[in-house]
């Protein structure tokens, strides 16, 4: 079945640091890829997406490149801010399998001031 | 953008009672709705998928008689937790997918979640 593995647990950069949160996926299909962000007590919100290989999703200074050759969709930002602190989920959605999404376990980003 | 609402945002109920959670797509027609539960500091676990007018498809291990899902219209789905017990306490999140103007059918929008506490 489909699976998504992302950077485990918590990452603790300081404000202004660069950031990479890894995401790797496995599927037999040709998926769309997403990063969702979740703030405490809220549902996930779509953060960025890439629908096909070599697409780059962008939002609020974050970027993620859909790399089919390495089956990866790493989330990157040059300079994080305290307001970026949240839980980030990487997800894939195959165009079959009833279009269900498969989520990674989430990475907690806590940016130190 | 597409908005999904849930009601209530939190609920406390006694063990043995039933609780209904509503999920509404406010500005688009949701052909498919998904129900998830999330435990603290964990990922989203898909419980079931429902298409408007059809019976829900439950994931393995999810009791369909305990978690009743109704998707009677293109803008409303409900999840009823029947005979709730403390182990059912969780954060329940719905998600809707459908046509919404310029948005594609593959966009999935999440509600704000419902915190259920069973005492």
Detail the topology: elements first, then pairings.
The complex is a heterodimer of chains A (113) and B (119).
Chain A: E1 3-6, E2 10-11, E3 19-21, E4 23-26, E5 32-38, E6 45-50, E7 56-59, E8 62-65, E9 75-77, E10 86-93, E11 101-103, E12 107-109
Parallel strand pairs in A: 2-12
Antiparallel strand pairs in A: 1-4, 3-9, 5-6, 5-10, 7-8, 8-9, 10-11, 10-12
Chain B: E1 4-7, E2 10-13, E3 19-25, E4 32-38, E5 44-51, E6 57-58, E7 67-73, E8 76-81, E9 90-97, E10 108-110, E11 114-118
Parallel strand pairs in B: 2-11
Antiparallel strand pairs in B: 1-3, 3-8, 4-5, 4-9, 5-6, 7-8, 9-10, 9-11
Provide an overview of this structure.
The complex is a heterodimer of chains A (about 110) and B (about 120). With about 110 residues, chain A is mainly β. Chain A contains no helices and twelve strands. In chain A, strands 2, 5, 6, 10, 11 and 12 form a six-stranded mixed beta sheet that branches. A four-stranded antiparallel beta sheet of chain A has the order 3-9-8-7, with no helix packed on it. In chain A, a hairpin with a 2-residue loop joins strand 7 and strand 8. The radius of gyration of chain A is 13 Å and the shape is globular. With about 120 residues, chain B is mainly beta. Chain B has no helices and eleven strands. In chain B, the strands form two sheets. In chain B, strands 2, 4, 5, 6, 9, 10 and 11 form a seven-stranded mixed beta sheet that branches. In chain B, strand 7 and strand 8 form a beta hairpin. The mean pLDDT of chain B is about 90. The interface between A and B is medium-sized, with 21 and 23 residues.
